[in-house]
Design brief:
The protein is built from eleven helices and three strands. It is mainly alpha-helical. It folds into two domains: about 60 residues, Arc Repressor Mutant, subunit A (Orthogonal Bundle), CATH 1.10.10; about 150 residues, GntR ligand-binding domain-like (Four Helix Bundle (Hemerythrin (Met), subunit A), Up-down Bundle). Strands 1-3-2 form a three-stranded antiparallel beta sheet. β2 and β3 form a beta hairpin. α5 runs antiparallel to α11 and α6 runs antiparallel to α7. The longest helix is centred in the C-terminal third of the chain and has 33 residues. The chain is globular, with a radius of gyration of 18 Å.
């Protein structure tokens, strides 16, 4: 275990979440479990066809990454993020993350590059089907984590990870069209190329573009939803 591994939160890295956590995230993203909804262990266990033990384990994972929250003496509910909070998260990422990722240049190994290539291909596969696009979120975070955990900017690593909230990223990917996914994956390909070229400025520039374009797509989704709501009124 390296010093970077000690800094990296356990929910990030090459190992994906448990299958139950991924299925719960899917219910949250689809709206079956809307923001603010209370989640009862027995009901969810029956719905997913599992015992309460993996549900409890999934809750621990999901609390750690901001998908659900535990309210003392009341239970567990889906965490809510309003549009202003999401914009703040993305704007903060756009300031901090490009620098942190750029500081991984020259520190990535061939094993890291092989993992980055594999994760990008996995995201492309998930993105080809609208039903699986929300699952890109965890793979996307694994991709970014390789850059971040190898960064020389040690004092900013934990802050960077804390801003990578899967439910926010998952909602974004679930709203993507096929061309949106393709554009996002092109950014990942370019990040790999920039890192291989050991060009810090290139990595930082692509990273910022990637984050801001994601924010703008999310805002466009909110505008479309508002327009649809007005049309139904």
């Amino acid at each position: 275990m390296t010093a970077d591994d000690n800094i990296m939160p356990p929910q990030f890295g090459e190992a994906h979440w448990s299958e139950v956590s991924s299925r719960i995230l899917g219910l949250v993203v689809s709206g079956d479990l809307p923001p603010g909804a209370w989640i009862r262990e027995n009901d969810l266990a029956g719905r997913l066809g599992v015992s309460r033990t993996p549900i409890r384990e999934a809750f621990r994972e999901l609390v750690g990454v901001g998908v659900v929250e535990v309210v003392p003496r009341r239970g567990t509910r889906v965490r809510s993020y309003d549009a202003e909070e999401i914009e703040q998260i993305y704007r903060s990422r756009a300031v901090i993350e490009p620098y942190v990722m750029s500081e991984s240049v020259g520190r990535l190994t061939e094993k890291d590059f092989a993992a980055l290539d594999a994760l990008t291909e996995e995201m492309k596969s998930l993105g080809s089907d609208a039903a699986t696009r929300h699952r890109i979120a965890t793979v996307n975070n694994d991709f970014h984590a390789i850059f971040i955990r190898n960064s020389a900017a040690q004092s900013l690593i934990s802050t960077t990870f804390n801003l990578m909230i899967p439910i926010v990223v998952a909602k974004l990917f679930s709203s993507y069209s096929g061309s949106d996914v393709s554009s996002s994956m092109n950014h990942h390909d370019e990040l790999i190329a920039a890192a291989r070229a050991e060009d810090k400025e290139w990595v930082a520039a692509v990273s910022k573009t990637h984050i801001i374009s994601g924010l703008n797509r999310f805002k466009a989704m909110l505008r479309d939803q508002a327009s649809d709501d007005e049309g139904k009124a």
